[in-house]
Predict the 3D structure of the following.
Amino acid sequence: MSEQISLSLPDFSSIKIDKIEQQLTEMLALHLNKITELLKQPEFTWQNLMYNLTILGDELGKFWGPINHLQSVCSSDELRKVYQACIPKLSDFSTKLGHNIVLFNAIETLSKGNAFAEYELAQKKIIADELLDFKLSGVNLDAEKKQQFKKIEQSLSEICNRFAENVMDTTDAWQLHITDEKRLLGMPQHAIDAALHRAEQKDLSGWLLSLDFPCYFAVITYAHDRELRQELYTAFSTRASDQGPHDKRYDNDKIMQEILLQRHALAKLVGYNNYAEYSLAKKMANTTAEVMAFLNDLADKTHAFAVRDWQTLTDFAKQQGAAELAAWDVAYYSEKLRHEKYDISQETLRPYFPEDKVFQGMFALVGKLYGLNFVEVDAENVWHDDVRCFKIVGENGQVDGFLYSDLYAREKKRGGAWMDEYATRFKLADGSVQVPVAFLTCNFSAPTGDKPSLLTHEDVITLFHEFGHCLHHLLSQVDYLEVSGINGVAWDAVELPSQFMEFFCWEKPVLDMISGHHETGETIPNELYEKMLAAKNFQSGMQAVRQLEFAIFDFRMHAEFQPGKEKEIQVLLNEVRAQVGVVPTPIFNRFQNGFSHIFAGGYAAGYYSYRWAEVLAADAYDLFAENGVISEEIGHQFLTKILEKGGSQEAMDLFVAFRGRKPDVAALLRYSGLVFNH
């Protein structure tokens, strides 16, 4: 039976940058007044309190969400200035809500009333989550400490934003003009064409290299010119620092120290020993000791494989005549080694993955698994000409959601790949259901001339990963916004649906759906597929310890921070590298200065979540592998027990409901080839 739907799509063309600040100010004031009026009611029910708060939150989200998204994908000096002015207003609003003891008491009465027993599981979880949020926001602090908390929150929102801007500014500012084509030897033609196009746009002859990831990756992996590789590596690894060729005004060193100091102070104010403990309050993991034990155990299990990978690579580089193996040589010789061992490279695979074919196949896969149909529609009122829009139609013919995609790298767009949301599914008072809307953003190579955008297999994995997040958001069947989609999902479980999707990219039936040579239409040949499988876990030990390096560094940095006694960030990172790393890092490398995930994103003291969720994802996928990869039966179980449930129940309970037991690390180690064969 079809539900009546309520449809709201974003309208970027209606955003007037010079009006944003005033509109936001008025909306926040109106919301505070409405909340004050709500709290004057003689008694509270779910409908007259929680539902009305939901409506206000949804309204604010749909106003600010597109502006926040625009700042990430099409920034400008004018927008940035307005955005910076709005951040403190939003922080102040959030703090006022978090410190509203009357609101806290009102919600707490719902947890104690007779009606509580009749609430759905999702409603009970929302109340528990809300009360925890109040605690984490310092609702019980005295007036002086609340003022401290407010100042810290506001300052953190501003300086974390500045961190991200510094990374974007140094990335965009650096360019290298090449006039000698010989310097580009070895690079893929698509990357050379893109550099030519970049130069033409600036009225320059020759080629223009940038630090956009597709360009950087092409140079560091394929360019024969070692000095060119070194120049790009140095520029990329020193972004937003006092090292390398960058404007020192954008150095993030002091900003990082200030972020750590203020996060620690925030955690201490509300009763935690450090920010890592504060961060874990809303995660699956219970204690800092549990997280460190998990990470150290994985390091112990994988380090020997990383050492073996590194030794193999150094031996190979010597055979190739390399006097030394510097950081800017690692990707280059790794690709050569991969090609020699398996006769395959990412560039061999690229012609088989035109963007449109990958999308069609990806949609066909989830269509089989979950009974969905994706239909492209006109992308109206969007932020850029590259944007495409798809509506999701369920088996009953009803529109279940909308997906917007923006896949190509460009200036004024932050690097990386991510999912963002505009609208979340929930049931309105009139019984209709709001249709969810998601944004899928990547930074792939754009089409050039008459050639379509061609993806590497690694790009395909990235796309599937972010699409997994989108599905989690779009396929929710929860009636309450606060725990619908990815809302209310423990941060160390939120990567489960995304990493789960990555496994499909290695299955031949799926590859037959998503591949088609851009000239011949031929799918991945069996011979090439066998080479892909053989090379699948190439250097998986080195890759595993690199991710563990990031995770341990992040967690220790937040767990061990002590004001006045803090280690220099670089010293701590060097310690972690000594524990788990195998690739020597140049002394000038300032990776941490561009580590936006933890200094400007949501992963502070939570980067371990990728590894934690990877265990869940591999174990979940194993059930598909055991029952036929494109199993509609298992797909239905994953849909109904994980994807549709959002954050309405505890993540571990949902996993156990799907898998029949708690997660086991064995599947991840096996899929990654990190098991010694005796």
Summary: The mean pLDDT is 96. The longest helix spans residues 288-319. The longest strand covers residues 399-408. Strands lie at 5-6, 175-178, 207-210, 373-377, 388-393, 399-408, 418-423, 433-434, 437-444.
